[in-house]
Design goal:
heterodimer; A: alpha+beta; Helix Hairpins; Immunoglobulin-like; 5-stranded mixed beta sheet; B: mainly alpha; Cytochrome C Oxidase, Chain A; two-stranded antiparallel sheet; about 0% strand
């Protein structure tokens, strides 16, 4: 019975494996649906190593199944003493050398890819006269539980939703401002930690076709335990064609302060200035030092896809969030930093926040 | 156990165990304490899986979840897996080398009580303001930011229990080097003894970095130091290095003795000597050595740079070679044998595919760029549960059934054992196999909840159902233990009938002096050799003579209790509590006082006289 069990399990293992390798998971989140050069290279390494390893498993399984079926103690053999074998040099050499060869096959592309993916030389190329670089650089700052994205060459700042052009390398400077986090966009490539000690650098690339498949919106995650709401420290990555991206950057650069016309929003703005402005900025060109940037930049708040990274983007959820952030993101730094707002004030504030837009001004 | 209790009364049994320095009783203490902690870790695991069964669940709160995952990891590694292995090492290793006890029986007891009080202290955090919540790795930036006393419990508790483990390791090393019976050369030692030896050496070298880093953490949190405080010039990455320089060998401290247990089981129930014994020994030593060279593969995403990542990637792959040697040697051990599928053998057989599955994902993670995807995702969770449950826990369950008669003199029920095996085995694969794919599909580990619509729902539900199966398996094991103890059918020296090593040549349980006469070891599998020559007992290496035994002592308990008390003082000192400093000092006075007492008071032990030994029933010891 045992051997039949094993065979069945093996079959199911291969079935699931086949299913997995043919691609599963959501295109905006899964590492198995690579959407750029880095993820693709990593995916290929996964496949290579999986193939080698499945070969090993197959060999082990064949010997294993044969051994446990052929050599069971049968009735009448109770007193049989099998031959006591010491070992076999030939066999031992074989199963030492073959794994070494297999590992060499795996090691070469591993080392190549390691260096390739760590190549950020273009980032440090001398800036042009106007201070900008050819390479697109984004400074990522991770905070409890939100993300800040700064485009230093363009003096543009945004939060929670990263905007990137497709089909070009995007370079990242990564750091954390409180505790260690880790920056991960599974579909676009592996993660890198945002340390409190130093700035880490790496690059990713977003393929335009694959981005389209994913609806031009990838999910980003924090991958390092950082506190109660670690699980909720999501961000989104919006991909745009290179032209659209340039357009977006210049819109961001020329964005004017919000001037709401709606009366509720005007009242909301007053509330915002009294309660929120000391932490939240509302324009993309926040020139304050990072220590003063205590909360996400809200310049594009009305255009975001999520509230606080996790809630649906509508006024109702926004009011829920402001009413009690602790309920949705335990341990966040916003709870209790502003006065209790009544329902009318909440409506006004929500109206104002939803009017914070850059592209549709 | 129960017979002794009936004979002597409950209180005197308790006192006996509180003061014992006998390696076999200490083994039972380790088994009980480790077993209780294993159940606690299991309950924590069940709560974790219950919370993650469905998206957006609110079975536990976010903060409590982090405490659960931290305590689950810490408990299972430090307070369950390691002590349970130490239980078997204590119970079996001295018997396997033909020794009357370990080299330092007093230190052995001290080691246990330190572990026990450390674990107790750590778990009291649940009742005293909250458990640690920064993961079992307790990375410095988060552990310094963590409020309350949770991390203080972690630091002090692990420090105390770590001392105990370190003492245990040193003790076993000295025992194996010095106390082997005549003729028991290194290359005739049973593989469980060999793996105990290498694991103890790993403990010796791996625990000091942990001790040092926990001291730094303790001083940062409680006494105003700044080792890991970046703002004051400290560095948090150094904690990660320290932790993994300990943490990676720790994995081998767990898995090597597990390999040892399986090696014994394979050869016993195949009725064959271990295939390629020398290469098995070589592979064990090599794994232990390489285990210290690969810690940074836990840190591929920290940003150490491509040179470090490439070197550690290749070094990590290298470990697959000796591990592969072992797997093939086991397969060739059962090949051509006469296999009897007892419960221990079922675990051993199931271990091969389970562990290979965990091992190959380990090699996959050695591919550094691919690991950027796997790291801190559920893929990693799946991987290390495959090696630790599929390797270590299977070995512990196998060892429990295999060595139960030698420890307690009665056999666990094979019928219930098979039930346990089936549920645990199915539950294990159901729980963890699917987690590989959850990770690849983008689920980070240590998440308190997950949102719907990310393709993660089904996998998580399957995983939680699997966990319930494992729980049923563990409960049935407990029932088995109770039923077996109540029935208490006594068994003879060699209850499995195919025992090969010295421990099966003496009564079950062994007499308190182990061997009436030290045996003469004439080759590998010494008892098997005698049996093949038609003998039922070992060849003695000495005439019957007086045996020198150590006295029981309450001092190890007191030394450990002092540190336990002092830890409370150190911790509440931070809150400016007036009583904290006196408690800290008082605890240390108890500890050092007990140590001075032990140093100044002569304790020569006692002798069992020749005449008494002659009178004893012959089947209890070695007969000439």
């Amino acid at each position: 019975m045992k051997d039949r069990l094993t065979k069945w399990r093996l079959l199911s293992v291969f079935a699931v494996l086949a299913l997995a390798l043919s691609g599963c998971g959501e295109p905006f989140l899964s590492t198995l649906k690579p959407a750029g050069d880095v993820a693709k290279q990593q995916y290929n390494l996964m496949i290579l190593s999986t193939v080698i390893m499945v070969t090993v498993i197959a060999v082990v399984t064949v010997i294993f199944v044969l051994a446990i079926t052929r050599f069971r103690r049968k009735k009448g053999d109770e007193n049989k003493i099998p031959k006591q074998v010491e070992g076999s040099h030939l066999l031992e050499i074989i199963w030492t050398v073959i794994p070494i060869i297999l590992l060499l096959i795996l090691a070469v592309p591993t080392v190549t890819a390691t260096f390739d993916q760590a190549n950020v030389k273009d980032m440090d190329k001398k800036p042009k006269k106007d201070g900008t670089r050819d390479a697109l650089v984004v400074n990522v700052r991770a905070n409890l539980y939100w993300w800040e994205f700064e485009y230093p060459d363009y003096k543009v700042m945004t939060s929670q939703e990263l905007v990137v052009p497709t089909d070009q390398k995007v370079y990242f400077n990564l750091k954390a401002s409180d505790v260690k986090h880790s920056f991960w966009i599974p579909a676009a490539g592996g993660k890198m930690d945002t340390n409190t000690d130093n700035v880490n650098k790496f690059w990713l690339k977003f393929d335009s076709d694959k981005s389209e498949e994913a609806g031009n919106l990838f999910y980003g995650k924090c991958a390092e335990l950082c506190g109660p709401s670690h699980a909720l420290m999501d961000f989104k990555v919006e991909t745009k064609s290179q032209d659209d991206f340039k357009q977006w950057i210049s819109t961001m650069q020329s964005a004017k302060p919000a001037a709401p016309t709606d009366t509720a929003a005007v009242e909301g703005q007053k509330l915002f200035e009294q309660n929120c402005l000391s932490c939240h900025a509302t324009s993309p060109d926040d020139s304050r030092p990072e220590q003063a940037r205590l909360a996400p930049n809200l310049a594009t708040f009305g255009e975001r896809s999520r509230i606080a990274g996790i809630l649906d983007h509508n006024e109702e959820e926004l009011k829920n969030w402001i009413r009690d952030p602790e309920k949705y993101k335990p341990g966040n730094k916003m709870t209790g930093t502003y006065k209790q707002l009544n329902e009318q004030e909440l409506d006004q504030l929500a109206a104002y926040l939803m009017s914070l837009k850059v592209e549709e001004q | 156990m129960s017979t002794i209790a009936q004979k002597r009364g409950f209180a005197s049994t308790v006192w006996d165990y509180l003061t014992t320095v006998d390696h076999k009783k200490i083994a039972i203490l380790y088994l009980i304490a480790g077993g209780i902690f294993f159940l606690m870790g299991g309950v924590e695991a069940m709560m974790i899986r219950a919370q993650l069964a469905v998206p957006n669940n609110d079975f536990v709160s976010a903060g409590l979840f982090n405490e659960l995952l931290t305590m689950h990891g810490t408990t299972m590694i430090f307070l369950a897996a390691m002590p349970l292995l130490l239980a078997f090492m204590n119970a079996i290793m001295p018997l396997q080398i033909g020794a009357r006890d370990v080299a330092f029986p007093f230190v052995n007891a001290l080691g246990f009580w330190l572990f026990f009080f450390g674990g107790l202290f750590l778990n009291l955090s649940w009742f005293l303001g909250g458990a640690p919540d920064a993961g079992w790795t307790s990375y410095a930036s988060l552990s310094l930011a963590s409020e309350g006393h949770g991390i203080d419990f972690y630091a002090l508790g692990l420090q105390i229990s770590g001392f105990g483990t370190l003492m245990g390791g040193i003790n076993f090393l000295v025992t194996i080097i010095n106390m082997r019976a005549p003729g028991m050369t290194y290359m005739r030692m049973p593989l469980f003894t060999w793996t105990t030896f290498v694991a103890s050496a790993l403990i010796l070298f791996a625990f000091p970095p942990l001790t040092a880093s926990i001291f730094m953490l303790t001083f940062d949190r409680m006494f105003g130091a700044n080792f890991f405080n970046v703002a004051a010039g400290g560095n948090t990455i150094i904690w990660e290095h320290f932790f993994w320089i300990f943490g990676h060998p720790e994995v081998y401290i767990l898995i090597l003795p597990a390999f040892g247990i399986f090696s014994e089981i394979f050869s016993t129930f195949s009725r064959k000597r271990l295939f390629g014994y020398s290469s098995m020994v070589f592979a064990t030593v090599l794994i232990g050595f390489l285990g210290f060279m690969v810690w940074a593969h836990h840190m591929f995403t920290v940003g150490l740079g491509p040179v470090a990542n490439a070197i550690f990637a290749v070094a990590t792959m290298a470990i697959a070679v000796p591990t592969g040697i072992k797997i093939f040697n086991w397969l060739l051990t059962i090949w051509g044998g006469s296999i009897k599928f007892t419960v221990p053998m079922l675990y051993a057989v199931a271990f091969i595919p389970s562990f290979v599955a965990g091992g190959v994902t380990g090699v996959m993670q050695a591919v550094a760029p691919a690991d950027y995807q796997y790291h801190d995702s559920y893929f990693i969770v799946a991987h290390f549960h495959y090696v630790i449950v599929g390797g270590v826990v299977f070995a512990l369950l196998a060892g429990t059934h295999f060595y139960w008669p030698k420890m307690f003199g009665t056999m666990l029920s094979e019928k219930i054992g098979k039930f346990t095996f089936v549920f645990f085995f199915i539950g294990f694969h159901l729980t963890f196999f699917v987690q590989h794919f959850l990770g690849l599909m983008g689920m980070p580990r240590r998440v308190w909840t997950f949102l719907p619509g990310q393709g993660l729902d089904t996998g998580n539900l399957v995983s939680s159902i699997g966990a319930a199966f494992m729980a049923v398996g563990v409960i049935s094991l407990l029932i088995n233990v109770v039923i077996t103890s109540v029935k208490n059918e006594r068994v003879g020296n060699d209850p499995w009938e195919d025992g090969r090593t010295l421990e099966w040549a003496i009564s079950s349980p062994a007499p308190f002096y182990n061997f009436k006469q030290l045996p003469l070891v004439r080759g590998l599998d010494a008892y098997w050799l005698e049996k093949m020559e038609g003998k039922t007992t070992l060849t003695p290496a000495e005439p019957i003579g007086d045996i020198h035994m150590p006295n029981s002592s309450f001092v190890p308990f007191v030394i450990s209790l002092g540190l336990f008390i002092a830890a409370f003082g150190a911790m509440y000192h931070v809150d400016d509590k007036a009583w904290a400093l006196p408690v800290l000092i008082g605890g240390l006075v108890i500890t050092f006082g007990a140590m001075i007492y032990r140093s100044l008071k002569d304790d020569h032990g006692f002798h069992i006289h020749k005449e008494e030994l002659m009178e004893e029933n012959d089947d209890k010891g070695v007969k000439a």
